[in-house]
Design a protein that fits this description.
Number of helices: 17
Largest sheet: 2 strands, antiparallel
Distance between the termini: 15 Å
Radius of gyration: 20 Å
Strand order of the largest sheet: 1-2
Order of helices and strands: HHHHHHHHHHHHHHHHEEH
CATH superfamily: MFS general substrate transporter like domains
Helix content: over 70%
CATH architecture: Up-down Bundle
CATH topology: Growth Hormone, Chain: A
Structural class: mainly alpha
Shape: globular
Oligomer: single chain
Strand content: under 5%
Length: 407
């Protein structure tokens, strides 16, 4: 049996360096997406758009990511994963750079589609690399570190991005992200090893690219993780995109106070995500997912039913919300990553990522259709959106039982 890498990892230090660069790339990728949510009030005012139009702005990235993710499933397993990741990240950085020069709603919408087309495949490639080079008994921890990029993006990226938007306009966060993306590419080229385990002749099945995709789609063992991913996304992305606009319009937060939400939420989840990953490795990924998801229902209900509330209490509720709603992703992705054999992991993760992105985009868009603003500019029906989230969370626990671990 061949080693997992053409140049095997000899030390934990090399493994940590790889995890570091994957987390850094994921950080920029995640920040590009999450910065859209706190900028919601700014976009709605700048372009004079309603909740449905903003929902489309958020979902356009995700739906584009899903569509191109399916295309990526046709070829990602035929290239060195290092090459795939760097090319995808270049295209993503270019799309983000275009966002900085958008002078209209339509231009920004198109730029988000381009960024999403490339960005949607980054997550699948990163998780495939983790699945290929990290032993299964450390995979939950590694996934927790990479998923912790959401926390770092919230603690550092979102407040800094919102400060740039406050001082220089909403274009500047995207300009900074685009430049940072181009600058980190050489570091990724240096630190990432060639990853060709899935291409080794003694394990690779000679087949066409279409057959590779069909193999992923026709295996009955893959259906549960795919359906699971739909409800995993609806459990969070019905509520998350409109959190900032809701807090400003209904709860009384000012736009300048929004960074506190992401700072404290991200700061706490930076530690809890890693801890949840370790718990998943120790006690089992399903049992930890089950516990965290059931606990997530409480803050979801508290968030969507909030009225005028003091800032300290808002921070407590939203921080708990982020801890559990984002924390369930760690055991969830560790389960899904391990639900496929290595030779088709890239195609599987591309399809899975496509489903994830389309589902999150659909959740955002559906929520935007349900929500509307009354004469006082307050959002109506957020609690109904929250009910969809709760039902999705509960059903995802049932579906998680059906996922079989392959390796």
């Amino acid at each position: 049996m061949s080693q997992p890498l053409t140049h095997p990892l000899h030390t934990i230090q090399k493994e940590r360096a790889i995890i570091f660069i994957l987390a850094a790339l994921q950080f920029l990728h995640v920040l590009d997406f999450v910065i859209m949510m706190p900028l919601g009030p700014v976009f709605m005012e700048s372009f004079n758009i309603d909740a449905a139009a903003f929902g489309l702005l958020v979902s356009s990235y995700s739906i584009s990511a899903g569509v191109f993710g399916l295309i990526g499933a046709l070829f990602l397993d035929t290239f060195d994963r290092k090459l795939s990741l760097l090319v995808l990240f270049f295209g993503f950085s270019f799309g983000t750079f275009l966002c900085a020069f958008a002078n209209s709603y339509v231009f920004l919408l198109i730029a988000r589609v381009i960024a999403g087309g490339f960005g949607g495949m980054i997550g699948a490639t990163v998780l495939s690399i983790i699945g290929d080079i990290i032993p299964v008994f450390r995979r939950g921890t590694a996934t927790g570190v990479v998923m912790g990029s959401f926390s770092v993006a919230s603690v550092v990226g979102v407040p800094f991005g919102l400060e740039l938007a406050e001082r220089f306009g909403w274009h500047f966060p995207f300009l900074s992200l685009g430049i940072a993306g181009f600058l980190i590419l050489p570091l990724g080229y240096k630190l990432l090893p060639s990853i060709r385990y899935h291409l080794d002749s003694d394990i690779k099945v000679k087949q066409s690219q279409v057959k590779s995709l069909l193999l992923v789609l026709k295996k009955k063992e893959h259906f549960p993780p795919f359906i699971f991913m739909v409800f995993l996304m609806f459990g969070g992305f019905t509520v998350i995109p409109f959190l900032s606009p809701f807090l400003v319009s209904n709860v009384g937060l000012s736009t300048k106070q929004i960074p506190y939400i992401y700072f404290f939420g991200g700061l706490v989840t930076f530690f809890t995500s890693r801890y949840i990953g370790k718990l998943a490795d120790r006690f089992g990924k399903f049992i930890i997912y089950q516990i965290v998801t059931v606990l997530a229902i409480i803050p979801v209900i508290l968030v969507v039913t909030m009225t005028k509330t003091a800032l300290p209490m808002i921070l407590v509720i939203t921080t708990i919300f982020m801890v559990f709603v984002s924390g369930r992703m760690v055991p969830a992705f560790a389960m899904v990553t391990s639900a496929v054999e290595p030779r088709i992991r890239g195609s599987f993760m591309s399809v899975n990522s496509a489903i994830q992105q389309i589902a999150s985009g659909a959740a955002s868009y559906v929520a935007g259709l349900i929500l509307y603003q009354n004469a006082d500019k307050q959002f109506v029906n957020y609690e109904l959106v929250g009910m969809i989230s709760v039902l999705s969370l509960l059903f995802s626990v049932y579906l998680a039982k059906k996922i079989k671990i392959s390796g």
